[in-house]
Task: inverse folding
Protein backbone atom coordinates (compact mmCIF):
# COMPACT_ATOMS: atom_id res chain seq x y z
CA UNK A 1 0.00 0.00 0.00
CA UNK A 2 1.31 3.47 -0.90
CA UNK A 3 2.28 5.76 1.92
CA UNK A 4 0.99 8.76 -0.07
CA UNK A 5 -2.52 9.81 -1.09
CA UNK A 6 -3.27 12.09 -4.03
CA UNK A 7 -6.45 14.11 -4.39
CA UNK A 8 -7.63 17.45 -5.71
CA UNK A 9 -7.90 20.18 -3.09
CA UNK A 10 -9.46 23.46 -4.16
CA UNK A 11 -8.76 22.60 -7.82
CA UNK A 12 -5.07 21.82 -7.16
CA UNK A 13 -3.72 18.27 -7.12
CA UNK A 14 -1.97 17.54 -3.80
CA UNK A 15 -0.19 14.58 -2.28
CA UNK A 16 -0.23 13.92 1.47
CA UNK A 17 0.77 11.16 3.87
CA UNK A 18 -1.62 8.27 4.22
CA UNK A 19 -2.73 6.86 7.57
CA UNK A 20 -4.25 10.10 8.82
CA UNK A 21 -7.63 11.80 8.78
CA UNK A 22 -8.62 14.26 6.09
CA UNK A 23 -8.74 16.94 8.79
CA UNK A 24 -5.13 16.28 9.77
CA UNK A 25 -4.02 16.37 6.13
CA UNK A 26 -5.80 19.67 5.50
CA UNK A 27 -4.66 21.45 8.68
CA UNK A 28 -1.28 19.93 9.43
CA UNK A 29 0.13 19.28 5.94
CA UNK A 30 -1.67 21.74 3.69
CA UNK A 31 -2.09 24.58 6.21
CA UNK A 32 -5.82 25.05 5.53
CA UNK A 33 -6.78 26.21 9.01
CA UNK A 34 -10.24 27.40 8.00
CA UNK A 35 -11.09 23.74 8.60
CA UNK A 36 -11.45 23.71 12.39
CA UNK A 37 -10.76 20.94 14.91
CA UNK A 38 -13.49 21.21 17.53
CA UNK A 39 -13.86 17.61 18.66
CA UNK A 40 -11.64 15.27 16.56
CA UNK A 41 -12.03 12.38 16.31
CA UNK A 42 -15.59 12.47 17.65
CA UNK A 43 -17.17 13.76 14.43
CA UNK A 44 -19.86 15.58 16.45
CA UNK A 45 -19.40 19.35 16.14
CA UNK A 46 -19.29 19.88 12.36
CA UNK A 47 -16.51 22.47 12.54
CA UNK A 48 -14.34 20.50 10.08
CA UNK A 49 -17.01 20.11 7.39
CA UNK A 50 -15.72 20.29 3.80
CA UNK A 51 -17.13 19.31 0.42
CA UNK A 52 -16.02 16.02 -1.10
CA UNK A 53 -17.16 15.85 -4.72
CA UNK A 54 -19.61 18.62 -3.86
CA UNK A 55 -21.20 16.90 -0.85
CA UNK A 56 -20.64 17.95 2.81
CA UNK A 57 -18.45 15.61 4.82
CA UNK A 58 -16.99 15.79 8.33
CA UNK A 59 -13.22 15.66 7.81
CA UNK A 60 -12.10 14.46 11.26
CA UNK A 61 -13.68 11.01 10.82
CA UNK A 62 -12.86 10.67 7.12
CA UNK A 63 -9.64 8.71 6.48
CA UNK A 64 -7.65 10.61 3.89
CA UNK A 65 -7.40 7.41 1.85
CA UNK A 66 -11.13 7.69 1.14
CA UNK A 67 -10.68 10.91 -0.84
CA UNK A 68 -7.95 9.54 -3.11
CA UNK A 69 -8.62 10.79 -6.62
CA UNK A 70 -11.57 12.90 -5.49
CA UNK A 71 -12.21 16.66 -5.24
CA UNK A 72 -12.08 18.29 -1.80
CA UNK A 73 -13.25 21.88 -1.34
CA UNK A 74 -12.74 24.16 1.68
CA UNK A 75 -13.97 27.75 2.01
CA UNK A 76 -10.82 28.92 0.20
CA UNK A 77 -11.85 26.93 -2.87
CA UNK A 78 -15.45 28.10 -3.14
CA UNK A 79 -16.53 30.22 -6.05
CA UNK A 80 -15.60 33.77 -5.09
CA UNK A 81 -19.15 35.11 -5.47
CA UNK A 82 -20.65 32.23 -3.44
CA UNK A 83 -18.04 32.62 -0.70
CA UNK A 84 -18.54 36.39 -0.58
CA UNK A 85 -22.32 36.19 -0.44
CA UNK A 86 -22.24 33.70 2.42
CA UNK A 87 -19.58 35.57 4.39
CA UNK A 88 -21.42 38.88 3.98
CA UNK A 89 -24.71 37.28 4.98
CA UNK A 90 -23.32 35.75 8.17
CA UNK A 91 -21.71 39.05 9.12
CA UNK A 92 -24.86 41.04 8.31
CA UNK A 93 -27.19 38.95 10.47
CA UNK A 94 -24.84 38.21 13.38
CA UNK A 95 -24.81 34.56 12.35
CA UNK A 96 -21.13 34.40 13.29
CA UNK A 97 -19.63 35.61 16.58
CA UNK A 98 -16.29 34.01 17.41
CA UNK A 99 -16.38 32.39 13.96
CA UNK A 100 -14.94 29.02 14.95
CA UNK A 101 -17.92 26.90 13.91
CA UNK A 102 -18.95 29.07 10.96
CA UNK A 103 -16.66 27.83 8.15
CA UNK A 104 -18.09 24.33 8.58
CA UNK A 105 -21.64 25.68 8.61
CA UNK A 106 -20.91 27.73 5.50
CA UNK A 107 -19.70 24.60 3.71
CA UNK A 108 -22.88 22.80 4.77
CA UNK A 109 -24.90 25.76 3.48
CA UNK A 110 -23.45 25.80 -0.04
CA UNK A 111 -25.73 23.04 -1.42
CA UNK A 112 -28.72 24.50 0.46
CA UNK A 113 -28.20 27.95 -1.06
CA UNK A 114 -27.71 26.48 -4.53
CA UNK A 115 -30.92 24.45 -4.25
CA UNK A 116 -32.97 27.40 -2.95
CA UNK A 117 -32.86 29.14 -6.38
CA UNK A 118 -33.36 32.59 -4.90
CA UNK A 119 -35.89 31.60 -2.25
CA UNK A 120 -35.77 30.74 1.43
CA UNK A 121 -34.43 27.43 2.66
CA UNK A 122 -37.29 25.50 4.32
CA UNK A 123 -36.86 25.43 8.09
CA UNK A 124 -37.13 21.64 8.30
CA UNK A 125 -34.47 21.21 5.61
CA UNK A 126 -32.15 23.68 7.32
CA UNK A 127 -32.63 22.01 10.70
CA UNK A 128 -31.77 18.61 9.21
CA UNK A 129 -28.60 20.03 7.69
CA UNK A 130 -27.56 21.80 10.91
CA UNK A 131 -28.12 18.63 12.95
CA UNK A 132 -24.51 17.76 12.11
CA UNK A 133 -23.26 20.99 13.70
CA UNK A 134 -22.97 22.75 17.04
CA UNK A 135 -22.87 26.50 17.55
CA UNK A 136 -22.53 27.77 21.11
CA UNK A 137 -22.56 31.53 20.43
CA UNK A 138 -25.49 32.51 18.25
CA UNK A 139 -28.51 30.46 19.31
CA UNK A 140 -29.01 29.32 15.68
CA UNK A 141 -31.67 31.82 14.61
CA UNK A 142 -29.26 34.28 13.01
CA UNK A 143 -27.59 31.38 11.18
CA UNK A 144 -30.90 30.56 9.53
CA UNK A 145 -31.34 34.19 8.64
CA UNK A 146 -27.86 34.26 7.11
CA UNK A 147 -28.50 31.19 4.95
CA UNK A 148 -31.75 32.70 3.70
CA UNK A 149 -30.06 36.04 3.04
CA UNK A 150 -27.38 34.36 0.95
CA UNK A 151 -29.98 32.27 -0.90
CA UNK A 152 -31.95 35.41 -1.73
CA UNK A 153 -28.95 37.28 -3.03
CA UNK A 154 -28.22 39.42 0.01
CA UNK A 155 -31.66 40.55 1.21
CA UNK A 156 -33.09 39.81 4.63
CA UNK A 157 -35.29 36.76 5.00
CA UNK A 158 -38.85 37.96 5.40
CA UNK A 159 -40.23 34.64 6.57
CA UNK A 160 -37.63 33.86 9.27
CA UNK A 161 -39.03 34.73 12.75
CA UNK A 162 -37.67 37.99 14.10
CA UNK A 163 -35.65 38.77 10.97
CA UNK A 164 -35.25 42.31 9.70
CA UNK A 165 -33.09 44.14 7.22
CA UNK A 166 -29.90 45.03 9.15
CA UNK A 167 -29.10 48.75 9.20
CA UNK A 168 -25.92 50.27 7.85
CA UNK A 169 -23.18 49.33 10.27
CA UNK A 170 -19.99 50.65 11.81
CA UNK A 171 -17.98 47.46 12.23
CA UNK A 172 -15.62 49.09 14.73
CA UNK A 173 -18.61 49.88 16.91
CA UNK A 174 -19.82 46.33 16.35
CA UNK A 175 -16.49 44.99 17.60
CA UNK A 176 -16.73 47.21 20.65
CA UNK A 177 -20.19 45.80 21.50
CA UNK A 178 -18.86 42.27 21.01
CA UNK A 179 -16.02 43.03 23.42
CA UNK A 180 -18.49 44.41 26.00
CA UNK A 181 -20.46 41.19 25.75
CA UNK A 182 -17.59 38.69 25.57
CA UNK A 183 -15.14 40.45 27.85
CA UNK A 184 -12.19 40.26 25.42
CA UNK A 185 -11.45 41.84 22.01
CA UNK A 186 -13.39 40.36 19.11
CA UNK A 187 -13.25 41.21 15.41
CA UNK A 188 -16.47 41.71 13.48
CA UNK A 189 -16.18 41.59 9.69
CA UNK A 190 -16.91 39.34 6.72
CA UNK A 191 -13.60 37.46 7.10
CA UNK A 192 -14.60 36.04 10.49
CA UNK A 193 -17.25 33.61 9.16
CA UNK A 194 -14.56 32.25 6.83
CA UNK A 195 -12.40 31.19 9.77
CA UNK A 196 -10.07 34.19 10.10
CA UNK A 197 -10.55 34.67 13.83
CA UNK A 198 -6.82 34.48 14.65
CA UNK A 199 -7.26 31.40 16.82
CA UNK A 200 -4.09 30.34 18.61
CA UNK A 201 -3.63 26.98 16.94
CA UNK A 202 -4.47 28.35 13.49
CA UNK A 203 -1.55 30.76 13.70
CA UNK A 204 0.91 28.28 15.22
CA UNK A 205 3.70 27.25 12.83
CA UNK A 206 4.00 23.64 11.71
CA UNK A 207 7.74 23.84 11.04
CA UNK A 208 10.21 21.07 11.87
CA UNK A 209 11.82 21.52 15.27
CA UNK A 210 8.66 22.77 16.97
CA UNK A 211 7.42 20.59 19.81
CA UNK A 212 3.73 19.89 20.16
CA UNK A 213 2.49 19.33 23.71
CA UNK A 214 -0.77 17.73 24.77
CA UNK A 215 -2.05 17.04 28.30
CA UNK A 216 -1.28 13.58 29.63
CA UNK A 217 -4.37 11.51 30.46
CA UNK A 218 -4.99 10.76 34.14
CA UNK A 219 -3.54 7.24 34.02
CA UNK A 220 -0.60 7.98 31.71
CA UNK A 221 2.63 6.14 32.60
CA UNK A 222 4.97 7.22 29.79
CA UNK A 223 7.47 10.07 29.39
CA UNK A 224 6.18 13.51 30.28
CA UNK A 225 7.36 17.05 30.91
CA UNK A 226 5.95 18.87 33.91
CA UNK A 227 4.49 22.36 33.65
CA UNK A 228 2.01 24.40 35.74
CA UNK A 229 1.23 21.59 38.11
CA UNK A 230 0.55 18.76 35.68
CA UNK A 231 2.30 16.59 33.10
CA UNK A 232 2.43 17.01 29.33
CA UNK A 233 3.31 14.66 26.48
CA UNK A 234 5.35 16.12 23.64
CA UNK A 235 6.08 15.06 20.09
CA UNK A 236 7.40 16.47 16.80
CA UNK A 237 3.87 16.68 15.36
CA UNK A 238 0.36 16.84 16.74
CA UNK A 239 -0.34 13.31 15.54
CA UNK A 240 2.84 12.01 17.24
CA UNK A 241 2.01 13.72 20.54
CA UNK A 242 -1.56 12.46 20.59
CA UNK A 243 -0.48 8.96 19.57
CA UNK A 244 2.05 8.88 22.40
CA UNK A 245 -0.64 9.49 25.02
CA UNK A 246 -2.39 6.24 24.08
CA UNK A 247 -5.55 8.08 25.08
CA UNK A 248 -8.96 6.46 24.93
CA UNK A 249 -11.39 8.50 22.88
CA UNK A 250 -13.95 10.44 24.88
CA UNK A 251 -17.18 8.66 25.59
CA UNK A 252 -20.80 9.38 26.33
CA UNK A 253 -22.65 7.91 29.28
CA UNK A 254 -26.06 6.56 30.10
CA UNK A 255 -25.93 8.27 33.50
CA UNK A 256 -28.12 11.32 33.99
CA UNK A 257 -26.57 14.51 35.37
CA UNK A 258 -27.32 14.79 39.08
CA UNK A 259 -26.71 17.77 41.37
CA UNK A 260 -23.84 17.03 43.80
CA UNK A 261 -26.01 18.42 46.61
CA UNK A 262 -29.69 17.58 46.78
CA UNK A 263 -32.22 20.39 46.80
CA UNK A 264 -33.07 21.47 50.35
CA UNK A 265 -36.61 21.40 51.66
CA UNK A 266 -38.59 24.27 50.19
CA UNK A 267 -39.72 26.86 52.74
CA UNK A 268 -43.42 27.66 53.11
CA UNK A 269 -44.44 29.72 50.10
CA UNK A 270 -40.94 29.46 48.66
CA UNK A 271 -38.86 27.45 46.22
CA UNK A 272 -35.87 25.13 46.30
CA UNK A 273 -33.34 24.40 43.56
CA UNK A 274 -30.20 22.33 43.03
CA UNK A 275 -28.06 22.57 39.89
CA UNK A 276 -25.44 20.36 38.22
CA UNK A 277 -21.97 20.90 36.90
CA UNK A 278 -22.41 22.47 33.45
CA UNK A 279 -19.83 22.56 30.65
CA UNK A 280 -19.26 25.99 29.02
CA UNK A 281 -18.89 24.04 25.75
CA UNK A 282 -17.02 26.66 23.77
CA UNK A 283 -16.18 25.15 20.38
CA UNK A 284 -12.46 26.00 20.12
CA UNK A 285 -10.38 23.70 22.37
CA UNK A 286 -7.70 25.48 24.43
CA UNK A 287 -4.44 26.13 22.59
CA UNK A 288 -1.35 28.31 22.80
CA UNK A 289 2.26 28.53 21.61
CA UNK A 290 5.44 30.15 22.93
CA UNK A 291 9.11 30.56 22.05
CA UNK A 292 11.74 30.19 24.79
CA UNK A 293 11.78 33.35 26.89
CA UNK A 294 8.74 34.73 25.08
CA UNK A 295 5.14 35.52 25.87
CA UNK A 296 2.60 32.80 25.10
CA UNK A 297 -0.20 33.28 22.60
CA UNK A 298 -3.58 33.84 24.18
CA UNK A 299 -6.06 30.99 24.07
CA UNK A 300 -8.77 33.62 23.53
CA UNK A 301 -8.36 34.12 19.80
CA UNK A 302 -11.63 35.88 18.95
CA UNK A 303 -14.05 35.90 21.84
CA UNK A 304 -14.35 35.23 25.53
CA UNK A 305 -15.24 31.51 25.59
CA UNK A 306 -17.98 32.39 28.13
CA UNK A 307 -15.28 32.84 30.81
CA UNK A 308 -14.13 29.24 30.49
CA UNK A 309 -10.61 30.09 29.34
CA UNK A 310 -9.81 32.88 31.79
CA UNK A 311 -7.68 30.46 33.82
CA UNK A 312 -6.66 28.11 30.98
CA UNK A 313 -3.45 26.17 31.59
CA UNK A 314 -2.50 26.26 27.90
CA UNK A 315 -0.64 29.62 27.77
CA UNK A 316 1.22 29.04 31.04
CA UNK A 317 2.17 25.53 29.96
CA UNK A 318 3.42 26.75 26.58
CA UNK A 319 5.74 29.24 28.27
CA UNK A 320 7.08 26.85 30.90
CA UNK A 321 7.54 24.00 28.43
CA UNK A 322 9.31 26.28 25.94
CA UNK A 323 11.71 27.47 28.63
CA UNK A 324 12.27 23.93 29.92
CA UNK A 325 12.94 22.37 26.50
CA UNK A 326 14.60 25.31 24.74
CA UNK A 327 12.22 24.81 21.81
CA UNK A 328 9.16 26.59 20.49
CA UNK A 329 6.17 24.72 21.92
CA UNK A 330 2.66 24.45 20.55
CA UNK A 331 0.07 23.35 23.13
CA UNK A 332 -3.14 21.80 21.80
CA UNK A 333 -6.05 20.31 23.76
CA UNK A 334 -8.41 17.64 22.52
CA UNK A 335 -12.09 18.00 23.28
CA UNK A 336 -11.65 15.51 26.11
CA UNK A 337 -8.81 17.60 27.57
CA UNK A 338 -11.02 20.68 27.50
CA UNK A 339 -13.76 18.85 29.38
CA UNK A 340 -11.46 17.31 31.98
CA UNK A 341 -9.35 20.43 32.65
CA UNK A 342 -11.69 23.35 31.96
CA UNK A 343 -13.80 24.97 34.69
CA UNK A 344 -17.55 24.40 34.94
CA UNK A 345 -20.51 26.36 36.17
CA UNK A 346 -20.46 25.86 39.96
CA UNK A 347 -23.45 23.86 41.20
CA UNK A 348 -25.65 25.36 43.91
CA UNK A 349 -28.32 24.14 46.31
CA UNK A 350 -30.60 26.85 47.67
CA UNK A 351 -34.03 28.01 48.77
CA UNK A 352 -35.76 31.36 48.23
CA UNK A 353 -38.89 32.94 49.67
CA UNK A 354 -40.70 36.25 49.13
CA UNK A 355 -42.59 37.41 52.22
CA UNK A 356 -44.12 40.50 50.64
CA UNK A 357 -41.37 42.89 51.64
CA UNK A 358 -38.10 41.05 51.02
CA UNK A 359 -36.65 38.02 49.28
CA UNK A 360 -34.67 35.62 51.45
CA UNK A 361 -32.12 33.31 49.80
CA UNK A 362 -30.32 30.60 51.74
CA UNK A 363 -27.90 28.50 49.73
CA UNK A 364 -24.74 26.47 49.37
CA UNK A 365 -22.28 26.66 46.48
CA UNK A 366 -20.33 23.56 45.50
CA UNK A 367 -16.63 24.19 45.00
CA UNK A 368 -13.78 21.89 44.10
CA UNK A 369 -10.75 23.85 45.20
CA UNK A 370 -9.77 26.57 47.65
CA UNK A 371 -8.61 28.99 44.94
CA UNK A 372 -12.15 29.51 43.65
CA UNK A 373 -14.09 29.58 46.91
CA UNK A 374 -14.08 33.27 47.71
CA UNK A 375 -14.73 34.49 44.16
CA UNK A 376 -17.70 32.17 43.73
CA UNK A 377 -19.25 33.06 47.08
CA UNK A 378 -18.66 36.76 46.43
CA UNK A 379 -20.29 36.58 42.99
CA UNK A 380 -23.36 34.96 44.54
CA UNK A 381 -23.58 37.44 47.37
CA UNK A 382 -23.01 40.52 45.23
CA UNK A 383 -25.62 39.39 42.70
CA UNK A 384 -28.32 40.15 45.27
CA UNK A 385 -27.68 43.85 44.63
CA UNK A 386 -28.21 43.29 40.92
CA UNK A 387 -31.92 42.52 41.20
CA UNK A 388 -33.77 45.67 40.12
CA UNK A 389 -37.07 44.96 41.85
CA UNK A 390 -38.12 47.40 44.53
CA UNK A 391 -37.62 44.84 47.28
CA UNK A 392 -34.67 43.91 49.43
CA UNK A 393 -32.83 40.71 48.58
CA UNK A 394 -31.00 39.11 51.49
CA UNK A 395 -28.74 36.25 50.46
CA UNK A 396 -26.78 34.00 52.79
CA UNK A 397 -24.39 31.68 50.92
CA UNK A 398 -22.07 29.04 52.34
CA UNK A 399 -19.75 26.60 50.60
CA UNK A 400 -19.38 22.86 50.27
CA UNK A 401 -16.22 21.26 48.90
CA UNK A 402 -17.24 18.34 46.69
CA UNK A 403 -15.42 15.92 44.36
CA UNK A 404 -15.64 17.13 40.80
CA UNK A 405 -14.09 19.10 37.96
CA UNK A 406 -12.81 22.64 38.51
CA UNK A 407 -15.39 25.41 38.78
CA UNK A 408 -15.10 29.15 38.24
CA UNK A 409 -16.94 32.35 39.00
CA UNK A 410 -15.87 33.62 35.57
CA UNK A 411 -18.35 31.40 33.72
CA UNK A 412 -21.02 33.49 32.01
CA UNK A 413 -23.42 35.18 34.47
CA UNK A 414 -22.31 33.06 37.43
CA UNK A 415 -24.04 34.42 40.51
CA UNK A 416 -26.37 36.65 38.54
CA UNK A 417 -28.20 33.77 36.83
CA UNK A 418 -28.48 31.65 39.97
CA UNK A 419 -29.83 34.61 41.92
CA UNK A 420 -32.25 35.58 39.15
CA UNK A 421 -33.87 32.15 38.91
CA UNK A 422 -34.27 31.94 42.69
CA UNK A 423 -35.74 35.43 42.87
CA UNK A 424 -38.10 34.79 39.98
CA UNK A 425 -39.13 31.46 41.44
CA UNK A 426 -39.86 33.04 44.82
CA UNK A 427 -41.91 35.84 43.23
CA UNK A 428 -43.79 33.35 41.09
CA UNK A 429 -44.55 31.09 44.06
CA UNK A 430 -45.84 34.09 46.00
CA UNK A 431 -48.04 35.25 43.11
CA UNK A 432 -46.32 38.65 43.13
CA UNK A 433 -47.29 41.34 40.63
CA UNK A 434 -43.95 42.20 39.05
CA UNK A 435 -45.26 45.42 37.54
CA UNK A 436 -45.72 46.84 40.99
CA UNK A 437 -42.16 45.88 41.90
CA UNK A 438 -40.39 47.59 38.96
CA UNK A 439 -40.19 51.36 39.08
CA UNK A 440 -37.98 51.79 36.01
CA UNK A 441 -40.03 51.11 32.88
CA UNK A 442 -36.93 51.04 30.67
CA UNK A 443 -36.87 47.29 31.18
CA UNK A 444 -40.38 46.61 30.04
CA UNK A 445 -42.72 46.18 32.96
CA UNK A 446 -45.50 46.19 30.34
CA UNK A 447 -44.83 42.52 29.55
CA UNK A 448 -47.28 40.16 31.20
CA UNK A 449 -44.61 37.74 32.42
CA UNK A 450 -41.75 40.11 33.01
CA UNK A 451 -38.47 38.79 34.29
CA UNK A 452 -35.77 41.33 35.00
CA UNK A 453 -32.08 40.84 35.75
CA UNK A 454 -29.23 43.23 36.22
CA UNK A 455 -28.82 46.70 37.75
CA UNK A 456 -29.70 49.75 35.69
CA UNK A 457 -27.64 52.11 37.80
CA UNK A 458 -23.88 51.74 38.14
CA UNK A 459 -23.77 52.94 41.75
CA UNK A 460 -20.10 53.80 41.32
CA UNK A 461 -19.34 50.68 39.30
CA UNK A 462 -19.74 49.66 35.69
CA UNK A 463 -23.47 49.21 35.20
CA UNK A 464 -24.84 45.93 33.91
CA UNK A 465 -27.53 46.04 31.27
CA UNK A 466 -31.07 45.06 32.15
CA UNK A 467 -33.39 42.65 30.39
CA UNK A 468 -36.99 41.56 30.58
CA UNK A 469 -38.31 38.34 29.10
CA UNK A 470 -41.65 36.81 28.26
CA UNK A 471 -41.88 33.15 27.35
CA UNK A 472 -45.02 32.26 25.43
CA UNK A 473 -45.82 28.61 26.02
CA UNK A 474 -48.60 26.36 24.80
CA UNK A 475 -48.65 24.23 27.94
CA UNK A 476 -46.41 21.54 26.54
CA UNK A 477 -43.91 23.51 24.45
CA UNK A 478 -42.16 26.87 24.42
CA UNK A 479 -43.60 28.74 21.44
CA UNK A 480 -41.56 31.95 21.54
CA UNK A 481 -39.14 33.94 23.68
CA UNK A 482 -39.57 37.71 23.73
CA UNK A 483 -36.69 39.81 25.05
CA UNK A 484 -36.44 43.51 25.82
CA UNK A 485 -32.96 44.70 26.64
CA UNK A 486 -31.56 48.00 27.89
CA UNK A 487 -27.83 48.28 27.23
CA UNK A 488 -27.28 51.99 27.00
CA UNK A 489 -25.96 52.84 23.56
CA UNK A 490 -26.17 49.48 21.76
CA UNK A 491 -23.29 50.49 19.44
CA UNK A 492 -24.36 47.79 16.99
CA UNK A 493 -27.83 46.29 17.17
CA UNK A 494 -26.92 43.27 15.02
CA UNK A 495 -24.20 42.10 17.41
CA UNK A 496 -26.27 42.85 20.52
CA UNK A 497 -29.25 40.97 19.10
CA UNK A 498 -27.09 37.97 18.21
CA UNK A 499 -25.59 37.83 21.70
CA UNK A 500 -29.05 38.06 23.28
CA UNK A 501 -30.41 35.19 21.16
CA UNK A 502 -27.30 33.16 22.02
CA UNK A 503 -27.83 33.87 25.72
CA UNK A 504 -31.44 32.69 25.45
CA UNK A 505 -30.20 29.46 23.85
CA UNK A 506 -27.74 28.89 26.67
CA UNK A 507 -30.34 29.69 29.36
CA UNK A 508 -32.92 27.27 27.97
CA UNK A 509 -30.24 24.59 27.81
CA UNK A 510 -29.18 25.22 31.42
CA UNK A 511 -32.75 24.83 32.69
CA UNK A 512 -33.95 22.02 30.41
CA UNK A 513 -31.12 19.93 29.00
CA UNK A 514 -27.51 20.74 29.93
CA UNK A 515 -25.49 19.01 32.63
CA UNK A 516 -22.53 16.72 33.26
CA UNK A 517 -22.69 13.30 34.88
CA UNK A 518 -19.98 13.37 37.56
CA UNK A 519 -19.02 10.49 39.83
CA UNK A 520 -19.99 11.64 43.36
CA UNK A 521 -17.08 9.79 44.97
CA UNK A 522 -14.18 10.42 42.57
CA UNK A 523 -15.32 13.57 40.79
CA UNK A 524 -14.65 11.94 37.42
CA UNK A 525 -16.69 13.26 34.49
CA UNK A 526 -18.53 10.44 32.74
CA UNK A 527 -19.56 12.17 29.53
CA UNK A 528 -16.72 13.54 27.43
CA UNK A 529 -18.26 13.75 23.96
CA UNK A 530 -19.43 17.16 22.87
CA UNK A 531 -22.93 15.92 22.03
CA UNK A 532 -23.45 14.53 25.52
CA UNK A 533 -23.41 17.96 27.22
CA UNK A 534 -27.04 18.62 26.26
CA UNK A 535 -26.46 21.75 24.15
CA UNK A 536 -29.69 22.47 22.25
CA UNK A 537 -29.60 21.88 18.51
CA UNK A 538 -31.05 24.17 15.86
CA UNK A 539 -34.34 22.30 15.59
CA UNK A 540 -34.92 22.70 19.34
CA UNK A 541 -34.79 26.50 19.48
CA UNK A 542 -38.06 28.43 19.55
CA UNK A 543 -38.22 31.79 17.76
CA UNK A 544 -36.66 34.64 19.73
CA UNK A 545 -37.74 38.27 19.39
CA UNK A 546 -35.34 40.92 20.63
CA UNK A 547 -36.36 44.52 21.24
CA UNK A 548 -33.43 46.83 21.97
CA UNK A 549 -34.66 49.80 23.96
CA UNK A 550 -33.63 53.25 22.78
CA UNK A 551 -31.17 54.58 25.34
CA UNK A 552 -28.69 57.41 24.63
CA UNK A 553 -26.60 56.62 27.69
CA UNK A 554 -23.16 55.11 27.86
CA UNK A 555 -22.77 51.60 26.42
CA UNK A 556 -23.39 49.08 29.20
CA UNK A 557 -21.56 45.76 29.32
CA UNK A 558 -22.88 42.22 29.58
CA UNK A 559 -26.41 42.74 28.30
CA UNK A 560 -26.44 39.10 27.25
CA UNK A 561 -25.60 38.03 30.82
CA UNK A 562 -28.77 39.78 31.95
CA UNK A 563 -30.69 38.04 29.17
CA UNK A 564 -29.33 34.63 30.19
CA UNK A 565 -30.44 35.19 33.77
CA UNK A 566 -33.84 36.50 32.73
CA UNK A 567 -34.59 33.70 30.26
CA UNK A 568 -33.52 31.07 32.79
CA UNK A 569 -35.88 32.47 35.41
CA UNK A 570 -38.73 32.70 32.94
CA UNK A 571 -38.10 29.14 31.68
CA UNK A 572 -38.22 27.73 35.23
CA UNK A 573 -41.55 29.46 35.76
CA UNK A 574 -42.83 28.20 32.39
CA UNK A 575 -41.95 24.62 33.31
CA UNK A 576 -43.84 25.07 36.56
CA UNK A 577 -46.97 26.26 34.71
CA UNK A 578 -46.76 23.33 32.31
CA UNK A 579 -46.16 20.65 34.96
CA UNK A 580 -48.34 21.95 37.77
CA UNK A 581 -45.37 21.73 40.14
CA UNK A 582 -41.91 23.30 40.32
CA UNK A 583 -38.93 21.06 39.47
CA UNK A 584 -36.25 21.31 42.12
CA UNK A 585 -33.25 20.49 39.92
CA UNK A 586 -31.59 21.65 36.70
CA UNK A 587 -31.63 20.26 34.09
CA UNK A 588 -35.34 19.53 34.38
CA UNK A 589 -35.13 16.81 31.73
CA UNK A 590 -38.15 14.81 32.90
CA UNK A 591 -40.62 17.56 32.09
CA UNK A 592 -42.88 18.13 29.11
CA UNK A 593 -41.13 21.33 28.05
CA UNK A 594 -37.75 19.64 28.23
CA UNK A 595 -38.92 16.70 26.16
CA UNK A 596 -40.51 19.02 23.61
CA UNK A 597 -37.47 21.24 23.24
CA UNK A 598 -35.12 18.23 22.91
CA UNK A 599 -37.30 16.46 20.33
Result:
Amino acid sequence: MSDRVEFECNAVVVTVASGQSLLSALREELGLTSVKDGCAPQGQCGCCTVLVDGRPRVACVTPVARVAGRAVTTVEGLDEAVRGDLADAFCATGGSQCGFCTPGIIMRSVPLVAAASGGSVPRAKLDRALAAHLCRCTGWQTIGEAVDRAAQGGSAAADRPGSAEPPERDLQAAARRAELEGGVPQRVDADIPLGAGVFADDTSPRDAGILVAVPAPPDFAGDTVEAVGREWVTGPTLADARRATDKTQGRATTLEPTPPLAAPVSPDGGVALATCFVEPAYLEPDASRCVPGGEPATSLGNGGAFGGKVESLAPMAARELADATGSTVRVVYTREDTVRLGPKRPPVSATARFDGSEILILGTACVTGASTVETIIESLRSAAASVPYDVAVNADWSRSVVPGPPVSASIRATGLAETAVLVEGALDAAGADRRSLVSDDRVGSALLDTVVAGPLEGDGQAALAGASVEIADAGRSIERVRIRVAAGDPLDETVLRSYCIGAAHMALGWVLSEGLAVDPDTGEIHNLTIRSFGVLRARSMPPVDVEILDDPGQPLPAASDAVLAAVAGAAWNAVTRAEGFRPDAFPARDTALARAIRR
The longest helix spans residues 559-579. The radius of gyration is 24 Å. Residues 444-450, 453-462 have pLDDT under 50 and may be disordered. The CA atoms of residues 46 and 133 lie 4 Å apart.
